């Protein structure tokens, strides 16, 4: 596979397998992979000053990013509230609900499409062919180039219809729960939850469709990334599980310089994989 320098693309994807084979001779396991999306945002374009009364107060990054940042700040504040308060209990409930969301969904919606390389109507980048290539980095001791590419293709093909159904379902429940807002004093938590799940499915679907567009135009190029091999080189001959340990995933996060929010999602994915493997093993007994 081609080797693409990191500085050549405005976007790169890194595959972090959460389960590895016990030995080279063991049968291939179903791949469970966490993807890190890194985007080098283009330099900001200085907009001409406008004297229009309405546009002068708008945030430079747009209302969408401003609202998202404000919501994250508010949610973080809930978590820092004193234990036992309504805000802190709401934060704990929200975190437990987040733990129940498939990590594949959270992983997809983490892709910031506002800074991603644009796609035109033909699914191709309007930039040069060299800059349009997106490296898909993988640890060569665990994955091959074709494996990493095939998994990404299968992932988006599976998730797009799933998020279509999820979006329609949660919009339906949001409509049903909307009349509860007429009840005074009591916050309409069911409506807010349904609206949040609808938004989550919509955002994950958009990201999956975007990645599918990159794949269909052959712009994603598998690229070996040997520095990640140290995460997977432990001796598993005596290991009880093939799930990559939490400590090694934390090492991967440091190697890739993941942001705290992304590291948190990576570790949440690890917990889900541990639970899935445990349930699978119980079924086979």
Automatic annotation (TrEMBL):
It comes from the Eukaryota. InterPro entries: Mit_KHE1 (IPR018786). One of its GO terms (cellular component) is mitochondrial inner membrane. One of its GO terms (biological process) is potassium ion transport. PANTHER family: K+-H+ EXCHANGE-LIKE PROTEIN, TRANSMEMBRANE PROTEIN. This is Mitochondrial K+-H+ exchange-related-domain-containing protein. The lineage of its organism: Eukaryota, Fungi, Dikarya, Basidiomycota, Agaricomycotina.
């Amino acid at each position: 596979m081609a080797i693409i320098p990191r500085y050549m693309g405005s976007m790169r994807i890194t595959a972090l397998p959460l389960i590895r084979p016990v030995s080279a001779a063991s049968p291939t396991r179903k791949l469970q992979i966490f993807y890190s999306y890194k985007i080098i945002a283009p330099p900001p374009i200085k907009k001409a000053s406008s004297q229009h009364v309405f546009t002068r107060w708008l945030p430079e990054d747009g209302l969408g990013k401003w609202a998202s940042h404000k919501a994250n700040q508010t949610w973080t504040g809930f978590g820092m509230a004193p234990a036992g308060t309504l805000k802190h209990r709401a934060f704990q409930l929200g975190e437990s609900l987040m733990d129940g969301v498939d990590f594949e969904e959270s992983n997809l919606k983490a892709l910031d499409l506002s800074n991603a390389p644009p796609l035109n109507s033909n699914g191709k980048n309007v930039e040069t062919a060299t800059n349009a290539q997106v490296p898909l980095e993988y640890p060569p001791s665990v994955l091959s180039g074709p494996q990493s590419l095939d998994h990404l293709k299968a992932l988006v093909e599976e998730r797009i219809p799933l998020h279509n159904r999820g979006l329609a379902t949660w919009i339906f429940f949001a409509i049903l729960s909307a009349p509860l807002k007429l009840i005074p004093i009591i916050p309409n938590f069911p409506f807010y939850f349904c609206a949040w799940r609808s938004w989550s499915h919509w955002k994950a679907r958009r990201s999956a469709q975007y990645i599918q567009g990159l794949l269909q135009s052959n712009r994603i190029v598998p690229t070996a990334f040997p520095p990640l091999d140290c995460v997977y080189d432990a001796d598993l001959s005596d290991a009880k599980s093939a799930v990559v340990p939490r400590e090694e995933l934390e090492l991967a996060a440091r190697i890739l310089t993941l942001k705290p929010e992304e590291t948190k999602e990576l570790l949440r994915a690890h917990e889900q994989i541990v639970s899935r493997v445990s349930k699978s093993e119980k079924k086979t007994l």
